[in-house]
Design brief:
heterodimer, A: 186 residues, alpha+beta, Ubiquitin-like (UB roll), five-stranded mixed sheet, 15% strand, B: alpha+beta, Uridine Diphospho-n-acetylenolpyruvylglucosamine Reductase, domain 2, Uridine Diphospho-n-acetylenolpyruvylglucosamine Reductase, domain 3, five-stranded antiparallel sheet, 13 helices, 12 strands, globular
Chain lengths: 186, 330
């Protein structure tokens, strides 16, 4: 790995391109990005990972949700240049090396948690992030304020709905999505 | 989007220097609002000075019992922080009432304060907007303004500030710490955002090139009963139509401390100083709350289509105050 790239310093900050290294689904990629490119563009256009979708392109629909350093994020709003050294997981990376689907992917199939499927990769990545956040004790808008800080938050239907509100489904598969997420928690 | 340069700063000093030496620079925190505005053509920076990795990502307990929140602490981490949840619940609640889980993971404390209005005329470069293009007019005043200001607006601008977090910070008497090439200074959160007046292009008191380094929560508000309540068009993931943050401490049968701020009613979180003054020393009764809130909202000047906000804000405030006052006293 080029040491300048590893330090994340751009050799020519007045130019409009920089080298970045992103670890995507476990594999490092060093590439030269236009500063205007957001992570979603790099994933889809440069790395041919077309699971994350461009829905609204403004952070309003959640179809582009991926995990960045283990946390869910809207990839359409993240300039790739600012993520140098980051660890990205997309829906393609959830099943690992084998053919076995991730339990949440399996649950989406079993529960019929989609119709057109456009929002599904974002829903799944978002749900994984949400489950991890709750396990780490992160409260949500519907968590009882009196719940003890730092303790895992149990995820009932209200919690799942609130925590996934950043992912829109225009087919309206929400009830089945909630069931699929419940299956994986229990 | 126009091409732009990129510089990553390692310290506040480096950031301020980079800003000063790159005309047309903008600081990049989480980017959730800035990148969106760049896509819309509203912001066209020549250079992004990336401050997202500055070593300002921790919440420190101060010797006097207050908290210093670094500017790059993410909204989700701040809302989940045990000291924030336990001592300043209104702040945690306000953060969790805003945006979505994935946006809160990206958005920073400093960036949340500096986010721009979601007025659709501001966001549409094809429309007149005095905030985006001073002198071009206000499309909202005679246009679609159901979500706009009812307090403190001017002929030039009727936009509201969209932050939930900032409303809680105002009610808590937090301070915003700033760093610039001229040095450091600190501004009360309640005075950080401006009313539009004749210069709606200026949202805050921040000077060009200044950087938010931290937000400080005062020891005086720690542990006091506090609450945030927000009304919106859907149950989650929407900007406020009206919101209230309140810190209320009663003792010896009277109000000892009151910090109340309204969100989504004005160009800045609207600190309800008149209501607070009316409540201090008064018994916390329903009549006292109504009197205080009505006194504050008497200044409202609703527009053609947003008078509903005044009643909505009144109901929210009365509910929040009633819940905060010990039941024995109401």
């Amino acid at each position: 790995m080029d040491s300048d790239v590893a330090r994340g310093t751009s050799a020519s900050p007045d130019s409009h391109h920089s080298d970045v290294t992103l670890r995507v689904n476990g594999k490092p990629h060093t590439l030269t990005v236009d500063h205007r490119s957001v992570l979603l563009d790099v994933l889809r256009e440069d790395l041919d990972l077309i699971g994350a979708k461009k829905g609204c392109d403004h952070g309003q629909c959640g179809a582009c949700t991926v995990l960045v350093d283990g946390r869910r994020a809207n990839s359409c709003l993240l300039p790739a240049v600012a993520l140098d050294g980051g660890d990205i997981t997309t829906v393609e990376g959830l099943s690992g090396d084998g053919e076995e689907l991730h339990p949440l992917q399996r649950a989406f199939l079993d529960r019929d948690a989609f119709q057109c499927g456009y929002c599904t990769p974002g829903q799944i990545c978002s749900a994984l992030g949400a489950v991890a956040e709750a396990a780490a004790g992160h409260p949500s808008h519907v968590t009882d304020p009196a719940a003890p800080s730092g303790q895992p938050v149990p995820l009932g239907g209200d919690e799942i709905r609130e925590r996934l509100s950043g992912n829109l489904c225009r087919c309206g598969a929400y009830p089945h999505i909630v069931e699929a997420v419940r299956d994986v928690i229990s | 989007m126009k091409p732009f340069g990129y510089v990553r700063a390692g310290s506040a000093e480096e950031a301020a220097d980079a800003y000063a030496s790159h005309p047309g620079a903008r600081y990049l925190g989480g980017g959730t609002n800035l990148v969106d505005l760049m896509k819309l053509g509203v912001e066209q920076p020549a250079t992004l000075v990336d401050v997202s990795r500055l070593p300002l990502d921790s919440v420190e307990e101060l010797p006097d019992g207050g908290l210093r929140i670094g500017a790059t602490v993410r909204n989700s981490d701040l809302a989940a922080h045990p000291l924030v949840r336990d001592r300043y619940p209104v702040l945690s609640q306000a953060l969790l009432a805003g945006a979505s889980g994935q946006l809160r993971n990206i958005a920073t404390t400093g960036g949340n304060l500096l986010q721009r209005t979601r007025c659709p005329y501001f966001q549409d470069t094809g429309k007149p907007c005095n905030k985006r293009e001073p002198g071009s007019g206000c499309g909202a005043r005679d246009g679609v303004h159901r979500d706009h200001a009812v307090l403190g607006h001017s002929p030039q601008c009727i936009a509201t500030h969209p932050s939930d977090m900032a409303v809680a910070l105002s009610a808590l008497d937090a301070r915003v710490e700033l760093y610039g090439t001229d040095g450091e200074r600190s501004v009360p959160a309640a005075e950080f955002h401006r009313l539009p007046g004749d210069h709606p292009e200026r949202d805050t008191e921040i000077r060009p090139g200044e950087l938010i380094t931290a937000v400080v929560l005062p020891a005086a508000a720690a542990g006091l009963p506090s609450l945030y309540r927000k009304a919106r068009d859907r149950a989650s993931y929407a900007f406020a139509l009206a919101s209230v943050a309140a810190v209320l401490h009663t003792g010896d049968g009277v109000v000892q401390h009151a910090g109340i701020a309204f969100g989504a009613l004005a160009h800045r979180p609207w600190r309800a100083r008149r209501a607070e003054a009316a409540l201090l020393g008064a018994a916390p009764t329903a009549a006292a709350f109504e009197h205080a809130v009505d006194l504050e909202l008497a200044a409202a000047q609703p527009l053609r289509d947003n008078a509903y906000k005044v009643r909505l804000a009144r109901n929210l405030a009365l509910d929040v105050l009633t819940r905060l006052a010990p039941p024995a006293n109401t």
